[in-house]
């Protein structure tokens, strides 16, 4: 900020020079008359010219310019460099504060615009372009202007010589803000919300001024912007498979994705002498290579904590069973859950999830070490096939589960099988028989070194390196070094637009084949490797020139490396630029069954950085590798491959002859080539209806032929009701609230489910902005809350829509509603509808199970449940199978009768009533919903114990408790009071749903805070780092560790 102040001081001294330079500019122009108010304000009397001030141009500004001056811009004169720099410095400072203060993220700014008053009417006529014509729709001017109207947020204006200038701000919507009128002195900088206000600028004096507009991300990505990446054509469909998350535990303290990348980039390896916690290496070592001994005493080992420690309570496993479980299975559980959690799948949401588990595991020495252990768990501890199944069982995953063993290629084969399971069958294909409807898969690879047995076995044929390293591609290659570790990644099919922006990479091709009859069963087969690579490339429609990096199997053997490089050469040699060859084994050792997974995770990191790490221990290329005519670079330092998005291929070959290949595409998200937006092409489909309206009707907004329909929860969205048209753009109808006293609704244009007018979220209030019409509103709706309004069940409401468009304001939609003063019979009132209620509980796998309506009591639904082995069950209710209408308690696992009932709403996740009793005891659950009153009753058949919760109506309703937490109260909790209340004990529902809290700001004038509803214990913590001090130390530590049940968990 001091830099801004220094610029301001210089501006005072250079003010006159800046004004003179403004008058000496060339290229003055005026916008088209229709567009003028949006850019230069109402009743404009000034002209403008663009400065070339290195702005981040993100909008199509041709709409503002005269046709013959569309590409003219001035070099910044000396006197205007300071003011232009100030505007950009202020813009950059504003961008930092806007997300937390105003709730949106700025994408960039327009070019600096200079303004001067028009000298005469004749000058205005000379600068004024022709009015809008059909050609302006074809050349993009109209769409560019509409795009600007949708994304503009702030206007920053600097007055150079305008003493006494008048600025008038008038709100577009008076519900949200008030207008203002200001007289501004010279050298004043003004910032205002251009999306909320129209403005009138009346200059005095010379009238010289500069301005820029700050905008959010455009609906239509600008492919010329270096921050935007367009996905390749192979992914321009709903068949794309995205890598959503990763997790790993590898040698060299690689406990995370960032840790693994750090080890890769600093040319470090994680190979060490065998730790004494595994075995006494000296007892089995022989430098003379005696039979029954090993000459290799190094390996890549994970932290002992990863192998030894395990939070069995978190996974619901007894201590006895955990003590017999192979460490590999423990690591699979931990790493698999970490990957799922990184993908947004919690332990609760994993239950019943149709997610496949595909594990590459070639076994370990645990069954031989603990074969003497007796008991029923011995079989589970000794079975290699149980690893993936145990993870699915513990988390409740319902997808297919496979454990694959193809030796060194196991984990990459697992990824290929998962990829194949996720892909949709083409229309002419028959659906596969292995659960084809999964959209998510967890792929894993695991290998642990627990005894010297395999060291001794591999020393016989001299497969291991005596020096304990993998000298991949090097002339000194003499075998490989063994390593251990576990890696996991989650794959998702056809993710949403938001998930696509957050994905790490895309798996675009995979292939698996066999060597068949070759020189020997363990010898690599070059032609089969070539065919495997080509098959994956054919599937992903890739040419050799498109692949930037090859992650090689590269074990560092004298025979394997030349054969692999030769196979790559035959496939990749037709290319204009070199391909980079690298191998993770130079950092981690050969992880055997987990090697392919380590290569894939490394490739994801490479794509995220557009950088290829070096191959460790590479001094002189292996002379047996034929690279003639092969444009290749064996990286021996951190190397930028020159583009902001790329493709990397991974190869893995099992010593039994099973070859696997995977090709990944990804964009750079860190470093010098960092990008911010992925253009998936989804905007084409989303904006098609919008473009159709613009080209057919001349602008967005309503047309005379349009009719608006309303659909709502009062009849479970089973019908659409036509709204009454007052004039073009104004519609209204009457609705009646049902038995809950709360209903939500959305609006549709011409009964088209792809043209929905909706708010930005589910159950939005009357102040929420309306969006659309588009197809994204199928999960968003407005909520009429008769309980908080004091009207209750059966009340009638008038719902109104105001929809229009102007070239100054853009398209606007205003949805309001208010209670009818008296009963309004006839038009708009929905007929009676028989609603249904379902119980959702732990015994139903959290799926809706419809309750039985009582024949004797009005508004009563009944069901019963038999308690399971734990003697506990949780439940809540759902109206009409609509997850926006959940009836639930105000806290989690509720047994106390004094906890309030909430809903119907969409805040019920994790908030359930808890049944506790003896195993197999039958409990009857009764739900009564009548006239806005909700009652829940449970009755235990054996103990005759019953309990009741009630939600009363009108004046006796219990409002939600809102708690505020901030620095002024030590991040503790204070209760907010309802508007009109002097204390929390006096409540008047007619006051509306407004809660207040008064505080005094500190010296800096800033106070950060969070608001929590109902929950005194802080179970639903806001996602903000400064809120963490409000948690007790153990809870804060538990959140960091991911596993909250044991202090020693890692």
UniProtKB/TrEMBL annotation:
Keywords, alphabetical:
Phosphopantetheine, Phosphoprotein, Transferase
Gene3D superfamilies (alphabetical):
3.40.47.10
Where is each Ketosynthase family 3 (KS3) domain found?
238-666
Is Ubl conjugation found in the keyword set?
no
Among SUPFAM superfamilies, the record links this protein to: Thiolase-like
State the Gene Ontology terms under molecular function: 3-oxoacyl-[acyl-carrier-protein] synthase activity; fatty acid synthase activity
Which species is this UniProt entry from?
Answer: Cladocopium goreaui
- Top-level taxonomic group: Eukaryota
What InterPro entries is this protein classified in? Ketoacyl_synth_AS (IPR018201), Ketoacyl_synth_C (IPR014031), Ketoacyl_synth_N (IPR014030), PKS_Beta-ketoAc_synthase_dom (IPR020841), PKS_NRPS_Biosynth_Enz (IPR050091), Thiolase-like (IPR016039)
Q: What is this protein called?
A: Ketosynthase family 3 (KS3) domain-containing protein
User: What are the recorded Gene Ontology BP terms?
Assistant: fatty acid biosynthetic process
> What are the top taxonomic ranks of the organism?
Eukaryota, Sar, Alveolata, Dinophyceae, Suessiales
Family listed: Belongs to the thiolase-like superfamily. Beta-ketoacyl-ACP synthases family.
């Amino acid at each position: 900020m001091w830099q801004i102040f220094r610029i301001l001081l210089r501006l005072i001294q250079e003010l006159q020079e800046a004004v003179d330079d403004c008058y000496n500019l060339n290229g003055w122009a005026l916008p088209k008359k229709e567009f003028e108010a949006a850019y230069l304000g109402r009743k404009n009397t000034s002209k403008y010219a663009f400065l070339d001030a290195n702005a981040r141009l993100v909008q199509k500004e041709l709409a503002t310019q005269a046709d013959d001056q569309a590409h003219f811009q001035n070099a910044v004169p000396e006197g205007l460099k300071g003011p232009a720099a100030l505007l950009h410095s202020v813009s950059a400072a504003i961008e930092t504060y806007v997300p937390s203060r105003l709730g949106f993220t700025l994408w960039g700014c327009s070019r600096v615009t200079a303004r001067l008053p028009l000298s005469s009417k004749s000058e205005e006529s000379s600068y004024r372009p022709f009015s809008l014509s059909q050609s302006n729709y074809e050349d993009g001017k109209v769409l560019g202007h509409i795009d600007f109207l949708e994304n503009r947020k702030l206007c920053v204006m600097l007055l150079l010589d305008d003493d006494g200038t008048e600025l008038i701000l008038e709100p577009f919507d008076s519900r949200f803000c008030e207008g203002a009128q200001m007289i501004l002195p010279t050298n004043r900088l003004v910032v205002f919300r251009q999306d909320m206000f129209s403005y009138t600028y009346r200059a005095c004096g010379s009238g010289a001024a500069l301005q820029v507009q700050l905008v959010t991300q455009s609906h239509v990505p600008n492919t010329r912007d270096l921050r935007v990446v367009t996905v390749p054509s192979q992914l321009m469909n709903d068949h794309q498979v995205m890598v959503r998350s990763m997790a790993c535990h590898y040698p060299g303290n690689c406990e995370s994705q960032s840790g693994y990348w750090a080890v890769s980039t600093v040319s470090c390896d994680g190979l060490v002498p065998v730790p004494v916690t595994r075995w006494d290496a000296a007892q089995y070592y022989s430098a003379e290579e005696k039979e029954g001994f090993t000459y290799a005493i190094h390996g890549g080992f994970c932290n002992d904590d990863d192998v030894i420690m395990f939070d069995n309570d978190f996974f619901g496993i007894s201590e006895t069973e955990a003590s017999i479980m192979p460490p590999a299975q423990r690591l699979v559980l931990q790493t698999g859950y970490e990957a799922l959690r990184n993908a947004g799948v919690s332990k609760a949401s994993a239950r019943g999830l149709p997610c496949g588990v595909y594990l590459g595991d070639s076994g370990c020495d645990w069954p031989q070490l603990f074969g003497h252990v007796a008991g029923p768990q011995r079989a589970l501890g000794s079975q290699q096939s149980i690893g993936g199944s145990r993870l699915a069982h513990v988390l409740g995953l319902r997808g297919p589960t496979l454990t694959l063993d193809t030796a060194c290629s196991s984990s990459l084969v697992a990824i290929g099988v998962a990829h194949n399971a996720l892909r949709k069958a083409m229309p002419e294909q028959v659906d596969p028989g292995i659960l084809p409807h999964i959209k998510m898969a967890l792929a894993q690879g695991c290998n642990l070194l627990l005894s010297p047995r395999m060291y001794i076995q591999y020393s016989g044929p001299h497969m291991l390196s005596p020096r304990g390293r993998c000298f991949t591609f090097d002339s000194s290659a003499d075998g490989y070094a063994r390593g251990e570790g576990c890696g996991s990644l989650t794959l998702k099919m056809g993710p949403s637009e938001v998930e696509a922006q957050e994905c790490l990479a895309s798996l675009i091709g995979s292939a698996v084949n066999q060597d068949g009859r070759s020189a020997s069963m363990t010898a690599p087969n070059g032609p089969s490797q070539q065919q495997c690579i080509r098959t994956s490339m054919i599937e992903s429609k890739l040419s050799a020139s498109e692949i930037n990096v090859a992650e090689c199997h590269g074990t560092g053997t004298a025979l394997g490396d030349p054969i692999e490089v030769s196979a790559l050469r035959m496939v990749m040699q037709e290319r204009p630029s070199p391909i980079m060859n690298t191998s993770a084994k130079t950092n981690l050792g050969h992880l055997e069954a987990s090697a392919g997974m380590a290569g894939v995770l490394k490739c994801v990191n490479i794509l995220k950085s557009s950088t290829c790490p070096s191959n460790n221990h590479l001094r002189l290329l292996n002379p047996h590798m034929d690279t003639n005519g092969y444009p290749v670079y064996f990286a021996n330092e951190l190397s930028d491959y020159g583009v902001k998005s790329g493709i990397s291929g991974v190869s893995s070959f099992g010593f039994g002859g099973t070859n696997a290949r995977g090709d990944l595409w990804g964009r750079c998200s860190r470093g010098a080539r960092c990008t911010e937006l992925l253009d998936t092409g989804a905007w084409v489909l989303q904006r098609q209806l919008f473009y159709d309206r613009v080209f057919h009707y001349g602008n967005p907004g309503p047309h005379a032929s349009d009719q608006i329909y309303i659909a709502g929860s009062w009849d479970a969205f089973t019908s659409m009701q036509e709204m009454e048209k007052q004039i073009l753009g104004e519609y209204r109808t009457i609705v009646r609230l049902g038995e809950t006293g709360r209903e939500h609704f959305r609006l549709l244009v011409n009964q088209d489910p792809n043209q929905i007018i909706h708010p930005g979220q589910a159950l939005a209030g009357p102040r929420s902005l309306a969006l659309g019409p588009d197809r994204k509103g199928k999960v968003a709706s407005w909520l009429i809350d008769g309980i908080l309004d004091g009207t209750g069940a059966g009340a009638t409401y008038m719902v109104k829509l105001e929809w229009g468009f102007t070239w100054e304001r853009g398209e606007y939609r205003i949805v309001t509603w208010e209670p009818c003063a008296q009963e309004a019979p006839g038009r708009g009132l929905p007929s009676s509808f028989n609603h249904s209620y379902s119980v959702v509980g732990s015994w139903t796998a959290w799926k809706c199970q419809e309750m039985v309506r009582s024949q004797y009591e009005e508004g009563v639904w009944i069901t019963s449940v038999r308690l399971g082995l734990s003697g506990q069950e949780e439940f809540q209710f759902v109206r009409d199978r609509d997850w926006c209408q959940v009836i639930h308690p105000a806290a989690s696992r509720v047994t106390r009768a004094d906890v309030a009932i909430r809903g119907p709403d969409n805040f019920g996740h994790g908030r359930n009533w808890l049944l506790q009793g003896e195993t197999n005891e039958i409990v009857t659950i009764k739900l009564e919903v009548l006239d806005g009153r909700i009652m829940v009753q449970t009755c235990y058949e054996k103990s005759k114990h019953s309990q009741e919760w009630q939600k009363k109506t009108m004046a006796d309703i219990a409002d939600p408790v809102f708690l505020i937490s901030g620095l002024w109260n030590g991040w503790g909790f204070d209760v907010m009071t309802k508007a009109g209340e002097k204390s929390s004990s006096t409540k008047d529902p007619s006051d509306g749903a407004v809660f207040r809290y008064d505080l005094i700001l500190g010296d800096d004038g800033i106070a950060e805070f969070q608001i929590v509803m109902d929950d005194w214990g802080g179970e639903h913590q806001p996602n903000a780092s400064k809120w963490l001090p409000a948690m007790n130390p153990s809870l804060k530590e538990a959140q960091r560790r991911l596993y909250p049940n044991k202090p020693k968990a890692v």
